[in-house]
From TrEMBL:
Lineage, highest ranks first: Bacteria, Bacillati, Actinomycetota, Actinomycetes, Mycobacteriales
Start and end residues of each UspA domain: 5-41
Protein name: Universal stress protein family protein
Composition bias type Low complexity, residue spans: 50-67
Pfam families: Usp
Protein backbone atom coordinates (compact mmCIF):
# COMPACT_ATOMS: atom_id res chain seq x y z
CA UNK A 1 0.00 0.00 0.00
CA UNK A 2 1.38 3.39 -0.94
CA UNK A 3 0.82 6.50 1.10
CA UNK A 4 0.41 9.69 -0.93
CA UNK A 5 0.54 12.36 1.73
CA UNK A 6 1.08 15.85 0.35
CA UNK A 7 4.43 17.56 0.79
CA UNK A 8 4.30 21.03 2.34
CA UNK A 9 7.25 23.44 2.36
CA UNK A 10 7.48 26.99 3.67
CA UNK A 11 9.15 29.55 1.44
CA UNK A 12 10.15 33.11 2.28
CA UNK A 13 12.37 33.97 -0.69
CA UNK A 14 15.63 33.26 1.15
CA UNK A 15 18.22 31.14 -0.63
CA UNK A 16 17.75 28.24 1.80
CA UNK A 17 13.97 28.24 1.39
CA UNK A 18 14.31 28.29 -2.41
CA UNK A 19 16.60 25.26 -2.18
CA UNK A 20 13.97 23.56 0.00
CA UNK A 21 11.36 24.22 -2.70
CA UNK A 22 13.54 22.57 -5.34
CA UNK A 23 14.11 19.50 -3.15
CA UNK A 24 10.42 19.29 -2.24
CA UNK A 25 9.36 19.59 -5.89
CA UNK A 26 11.70 16.77 -6.90
CA UNK A 27 10.42 14.59 -4.06
CA UNK A 28 6.78 15.32 -4.90
CA UNK A 29 7.42 14.41 -8.54
CA UNK A 30 9.09 11.13 -7.54
CA UNK A 31 6.24 10.23 -5.19
CA UNK A 32 3.55 11.57 -7.54
CA UNK A 33 2.05 13.45 -4.64
CA UNK A 34 0.77 17.04 -4.25
CA UNK A 35 3.18 19.82 -3.31
CA UNK A 36 2.02 22.86 -1.35
CA UNK A 37 4.18 25.97 -1.02
CA UNK A 38 3.29 28.13 1.95
CA UNK A 39 4.35 31.75 2.25
CA UNK A 40 3.17 34.85 4.06
CA UNK A 41 3.63 38.59 4.01
CA UNK A 42 4.55 40.48 7.18
CA UNK A 43 2.94 43.89 7.54
CA UNK A 44 4.12 45.73 10.68
CA UNK A 45 1.23 47.13 12.69
CA UNK A 46 -1.39 44.92 11.06
CA UNK A 47 -3.73 42.85 13.23
CA UNK A 48 -2.04 43.43 16.54
CA UNK A 49 1.54 43.01 15.35
CA UNK A 50 3.60 45.75 17.03
CA UNK A 51 5.47 47.92 14.57
CA UNK A 52 7.84 49.54 17.08
CA UNK A 53 11.40 48.75 16.09
CA UNK A 54 10.41 46.56 13.16
CA UNK A 55 11.30 47.41 9.61
CA UNK A 56 9.45 46.11 6.57
CA UNK A 57 11.39 43.79 4.29
CA UNK A 58 13.45 45.50 1.67
CA UNK A 59 15.37 44.20 -1.35
CA UNK A 60 18.55 44.35 0.74
CA UNK A 61 17.05 41.99 3.37
CA UNK A 62 18.04 38.92 1.35
CA UNK A 63 14.48 37.75 0.74
CA UNK A 64 12.90 37.98 -2.67
CA UNK A 65 9.30 38.59 -3.59
CA UNK A 66 7.54 35.55 -5.09
CA UNK A 67 7.63 37.12 -8.56
CA UNK A 68 11.44 37.32 -8.24
CA UNK A 69 12.03 33.69 -7.25
CA UNK A 70 14.52 32.25 -9.75
CA UNK A 71 12.60 29.20 -10.97
CA UNK A 72 12.18 28.03 -14.52
CA UNK A 73 8.42 27.71 -14.49
CA UNK A 74 8.52 25.99 -17.89
CA UNK A 75 10.82 23.16 -16.76
CA UNK A 76 8.04 20.75 -15.76
CA UNK A 77 4.37 20.75 -16.63
CA UNK A 78 2.44 21.94 -13.61
CA UNK A 79 -0.97 23.12 -12.59
CA UNK A 80 -2.26 25.08 -9.65
CA UNK A 81 -4.84 23.05 -7.79
CA UNK A 82 -5.68 25.64 -5.14
CA UNK A 83 -4.50 29.08 -4.09
CA UNK A 84 -5.51 30.90 -0.96
Amino acid sequence: MTDHRPIVVGVDGSQSSLQAVVCAAEEAALRRTPLTLATTVFVPGARGVPSAGLKPSSPSSGSLLPSEWPFDRNAQPARVLKTS
